[in-house]
Design goal:
The complex is a heterodimer of chains A (about 500) and B (about 500). Chain A has about 500 residues and is an alpha+beta fold. Chain A has three domains: about 5-295, no CATH class; about 340-425, no CATH class; about 435-494, Arc Repressor Mutant, subunit A, CATH 1.10.10.410. In chain A, about 40% of the residues lie in helices and about 20% in strands. Chain A has 15 helices and 19 strands. In chain A, the strands form four sheets. In chain A, strands 1, 2, 3, 4, 8, 9, 10, 13, 14, 15, 16 and 17 form a twelve-stranded mixed sheet that branches. Chain A has a three-stranded antiparallel sheet with strand order 7-6-18, with no helix packed on it. In chain A, strands 5-19 form a two-stranded antiparallel ribbon. In chain A, a hairpin with a 2-residue loop joins strand 1 and strand 2. Chain A is elongated. With about 500 residues, chain B is an alpha/beta fold. Chain B has a domain at about 10-255: Amidase signature (AS) enzymes (Alpha-Beta Complex). Chain B contains 15 helices and eleven strands. An eleven-stranded mixed sheet of chain B has the order 1-3-2-4-6-5-10-11-9-7-8, sandwiched between helices. Chain B is globular, with a radius of gyration of 21 Å. The N and C termini of chain B lie close together (about 5 Å). The chains are: A alpha+beta (about 500), B alpha/beta (about 500). Chains A and B meet through loops of A and helix 9 and helix 10 of B. The complex binds zinc ion.
Chain lengths: ~500, ~500
């Protein structure tokens, strides 16, 4: 059954009633520190199980936590990037609950004095999504259920996270998707998290309720978990909202219970994980092993100084100062690595538009197609200086456009430098005009109709001859020059 | 019994070894023999580490390195201090067989100073108790009268030193667990300022109260031991940024003019007559030597016991959550679910007193009750701290009995937890305030139940925050007024 939507209003296909969803997000982001929150173990991804552990992060009796100061720095920078207020006095609390991948059976987290509050993100619709709070906490380990029993990997235990909680200011699946996109890019640009969802560096839970349009107050909210991508967040909401509406319409008030549901991306549905019986009692209390934290002006200002220009500002500047389209500006600010690469290359080449085209049409395309082994432009051996060199050579006519593209692709493929690749591809060989004329004459003789059609006013007919000449030249001839020579031969003979 | 080191204290023994009068192996072997011979009557040790002790003694004898401050001195370690490779079971079935994968900072420092650990001592399970009777492996007995308790929770370490089986043993003091057994066994027991000795590797009971604390037979050994185990440790975030106290009694505190505060609240009407008389006699000796006795008041002293039992049990309920059968210790499978394994493991592994305290602490932290219990206790703690600050404006140290009674018979209070908790009534205040306090031998008294016997009494000397040297110095001055500290029990080895 398809659901009609009118802005944020969902129209029930059964009754025609108008329903409005209210959505809040809880996002956990891993801070990009070298070591864990309370011990010296390296933060790793994909290492063999339990190889990055020590007495502290495995919760051995007697072991004690020592705060990694780098976590504070990144957490403060993240708060500033999100426009939040940093508390001067804060502390860690213990959140007590039993689970097999939580070695101490308490999580060191923050409760009533999180290190920051406020802030938020403005969506393209103009809606400002307020952040309620951000706090620091340690990650748990990972449980793998196998035939041999449940196995626990503690490599991730103690990895530093920030958990941010929005107010219920979102009102559509698209809002949620956009919020997460903006949130991630802010963390990435601020250099506080690589926020790679596939590596579990960004995790999101959704809270959603629905109510009839115009109804006062909120109805029961449901938490949806197991959302491994922004798409999943959006899809799960697209299914959970109608589910709740249908339940209310079929069974009336009370049909939706407070519970946690899991998103099953294969079956495209949410299903009950556990029903909440009252509030969980985590028996929070200040962690007696860690002193109170005093976040100094010095710390806060030093992090403010490290804040780069954020994506929203960069997009605006690319349009107003560099004359790029909104679309290009969006593509180029898709990640900090892309934006930084683009800006350096544009600065060197002096031609932002050409640079934008090269970055989005060639480099990002090659990256997306998996033609180069790199996670981002930052890892390319083909540096911004290389790209600007190619752009300058193309502008000066030293390279023709087809050759330039071939050159860039070859550089990406081999990792060789620009000048060496020009030589190895023979792009520096000058084809003399008499040779080119000879090939053009051959081509015209092989396609006699071309001459007549061109003379009849159809200049496009020349195309049939360009290919054979390119082939004869081994791809080194400049198509523009071939066209000129062909035209000259036809006009000269008429 | 044999006298393994002829009544020498640690300083004297080290000097004799360094002067070539005794060998390290000979001393170690004599110690081990005496311990083995004492086990049936005293039960001070859970494990006797003959092999590793003799190997270490031989290594020390062969070494050309400069002898350390505890060169060749046999020491005993309480079973809640991690000692790498050795069973650190906290006298609990739950941790039976668990060998610590690392060493506590205090143990490492003893080893670095040349000490020879000979075994692991008995205790109340997880340091919860005041008599030693909560050990899962049977109680240790008081060497002055083996039908009586030695005090607790550091029962075995107190007995080992009192019986002159070792000149130095480590214990831990949370609410009096070293001072009280030291008083009841007639030796020195010293609880340093909170943060003066690293807690790293001490299996946590009440994290904001726990301190690694030594037992010795002379005031000079207190100074020597503190100079070895004291001092900042970056692995413990609650460790004070102070150097270790100095190694020798400097004699800088003169008795003449020293103001000794006598808090009337710590001489309550229910104090045993004999204990009162012995303490008053000790105070009179100080006065004769030129001290000025001043009456001081700790008006909130009556809050100390309830405050202590809320704070310590709340912290314990969280600290002991990690003993769940997942990563270490004994596991009891339940019905196949994770929660039933946790429950079965803890039900089988913990003794009654540990369960009782976990339940009290869990309750004290529960939502809806937390402010009434944990919150009020935290506020009362501040009041107690202020009491001491005010008192120390009028005096240099505070003197009072360590224990309201001398050693009581085994079994007398096991059915009445509250009467057992009252054994700590005079020691918990200094713990809550984080202050340095020593129990020093102060004569003998008959127990209320048997006027024919004569059992040790301890005088507790408490100093201002971080004034550990002063407390030790005053203990040294008191020592010079009598030979109480030289008397040894017939049940001992000397
Ligand atoms: Zn670790």
């Amino acid at each position: 059954m398809s659901w009609e939507r009118d802005g944020h209003v969902w129209i029930s296909p059964q009754t025609g009633a108008r329903w409005v969803p209210t959505i809040g997000l809880e996002v956990h982001a891993q801070l990009s520190t070298k070591t864990k929150l309370f011990c010296g173990c390296e933060v790793s991804f994909g290492a063999p199980p339990n190889t990055h552990t020590c007495p502290v992060c495995t919760g051995q009796p007697g072991a004690l936590p020592v705060l990694n100061e780098a976590v504070l720095e990144l957490a403060v920078r993240a708060a500033l990037a999100l426009g939040a207020d940093v508390a001067r006095e804060t502390h860690f609390d213990r959140k007590n609950y039993f689970y097999c991948d939580l070695p101490k059976n308490f999580q060191t987290s923050q409760y009533d004095h999180p290190f920051c509050s406020g802030g938020g993100i403005e969506l393209s619709s103009g809606v400002f999504v307020r952040l309620n709070r951000i706090h620091m906490e340690e990650d748990a380990g990972k449980t793998m259920h196998t035939e041999a029993g449940s196995l626990v990997d503690l490599n991730r235990a103690g990895v530093p996270l920030i958990e941010s909680v929005t107010e219920a200011d979102l009102s559509s699946p698209e809002d949620a998707y956009e919020y997460l996109t903006r949130f991630r890019e802010i963390l990435q640009f601020a250099g506080v998290s690589t926020a790679d969802m596939e590596k579990g560096e960004l995790r999101c839970d959704v809270n959603v309720s629905v109510r009839p349009e115009g109804e006062e107050g909120l109805r029961t909210k449901v938490e949806v978990k197991n959302l491994n991508s922004f798409r999943h967040v959006q899809s799960s909401l697209e299914h959970e909202i109608p589910r709740q509406v249908a339940a209310y319409e079929a069974e009336g008030a009370g049909a939706v219970v407070q519970e946690t549901r899991l998103w099953d991306p294969d079956r495209e549905e949410t299903r009950t994980m556990r029903v909440k019986e009252g509030e969980s009692d985590y028996r929070y209390f200040p962690c007696p092993d860690l002193p109170e934290l005093h976040l100094t002006e010095e710390l806060i200002e030093s992090q403010r100084a490290l804040l780069p220009e954020l994506p929203k500002e960069r997009r605006a500047r690319y349009q107003s100062e560099l004359g790029l389209s909104e679309y290009d500006a969006g593509v180029l600010t898709g990640s900090r690595a892309t934006a930084d690469y683009f800006e350096e290359a544009a600065e060197r080449s002096g031609d932002p538009k050409a640079t934008a085209n090269w970055v989005s049409n060639e480099l990002l395309r090659a990256l997306g197609a998996g033609e180069v082994k790199a996670a981002s432009l930052a890892e390319l051996s083909f540096r911004p200086s290389d790209l600007s060199l190619v752009i300058q050579k193309a502008a000066s006519g030293e390279l023709h456009s087809k050759g330039a593209r071939e050159l860039v692709r070859e550089c990406l493929r081999t990792g060789e430098g620009v000048e060496e690749t020009i030589q190895s591809l023979g792009l520096d060989e000058v084809i003399d005009d008499s040779q080119l004329e000879a090939w053009c004459e051959e081509a015209l003789e092989a396609n006699p109709r071309v001459r007549d059609e061109v003379l009849a006013g159809n200049a496009k007919a020349l195309g049939a001859c360009i290919g054979p000449v390119m082939k004869a030249s081994g791809g080194k001839a400049d198509p523009k020059r071939i066209t000129e020579v062909l035209k000259g031969l036809i006009e000269g003979s008429s | 019994m044999n006298a393994p080191f002829e009544g020498l204290d640690a300083t004297g023994l080290r000097d004799a070894i360094c002067a070539g009068q005794r060998g390290v192996r000979e001393t170690t072997a004599a110690c081990l023999d005496a311990i083995e011979a004492s086990q049936d009557t005293l039960g001070a040790f859970l494990t006797i580490e003959r092999e590793s002790a003799l190997a270490r003694a031989e290594e020390l004898e062969r070494s050309d390195a400069e002898p350390g401050p505890l060169h060749g001195v046999p020491v005993a370690i309480k079973a809640n201090l991690c000692w790498e490779g050795h069973e650190t079971n906290c006298a609990s079935r739950l941790l039976e067989g668990w060998r610590a994968p690392y060493s506590a900072t205090s143990v490492e420092r003893l080893l670095a100073a040349g000490a020879v650990p000979v075994g692991v001592t008995n205790m109340d399970e997880f340091a919860m108790g005041s008599s030693g009777e909560n050990s899962a492996f049977g109680p240790a007995r008081n060497p002055w009268d083996t039908t009586r308790i030695p005090g607790g929770s550091s029962s075995g370490s107190a007995v080992a030193v009192a019986a002159r089986l070792v000149p130095l043993a480590l214990g831990s003091d949370t609410g009096g667990s070293v001072r009280q057994p030291a008083a009841l066994c007639g030796v020195y027991g010293y609880k340093p300022t909170y943060g003066r000795v690293s807690r790293y590797g001490l299996v946590a009971f009440g994290s904001s109260l726990d301190q690694v604390s030594p037992f010795v037979t002379s005031a000079r050994d207190l100074a020597l031991c503190m100079s070895v185990i004291g001092g900042h440790d970056p692995r413990d975030s609650t460790s004070l940024e102070l150097d270790a106290p100095s190694a020798a009694l400097r004699g800088e505190v003169a008795l003449t003019g020293l103001k000794v505060g006598v808090p009337k609240e710590h001489f309550p009407p229910e104090l045993d007559k004999g204990t009162r008389a012995a303490c008053e006699a000790a105070l009179a000796r100080l006065e004769e030597r030129g001290c000025e006795l001043v009456e001081v008041s700790l008006p909130h002293a009556s809050y100390a016991i309830p405050t202590y039992y809320v704070v310590a049990t709340a912290e314990a309920s969280s600290n002991l959550a990690r003993f769940d059968g997942v990563a270490y210790g004994q596991r009891v499978d339940g019905d196949g679910s994770l929660n039933s394994m946790f429950a079965a493991t803890r039900a089988a592994g913990f003794g009654d007193e540990v369960k009782r305290r976990i339940l009290i602490g869990t309750y004290a932290l529960s939502a809806g009750y937390q402010d009434e219990w944990y919150g009020r206790a935290t506020r009362a703690r501040t009041l107690l701290r202020r009491d001491y600050e005010a008192a120390f404006e009028r005096c240099d140290v505070i003197a009072a009995p360590t224990s309201p009674t001398v050693a009581f018979p085994l079994g007398e209070r096991t059915e009445d937890p509250v009467s057992m908790y009252l054994a700590d009534i005079l020691t918990v205040s200094a713990s809550l305030a984080g202050l340095p306090a020593v129990s020093a031998p102060a004569g003998f008294a008959a127990p209320a139940d048997d006027p024919t016997k004569s059992l040790p009494v301890g005088l507790q000397l408490t100093g201002p925050h971080a004034c550990d040297e002063r407390v030790i110095e005053v203990a040294g001055l008191l020592e010079s007024t009598s030979d109480d500290h030289l008397k040894t029990p017939s049940g001992g080895a000397a």
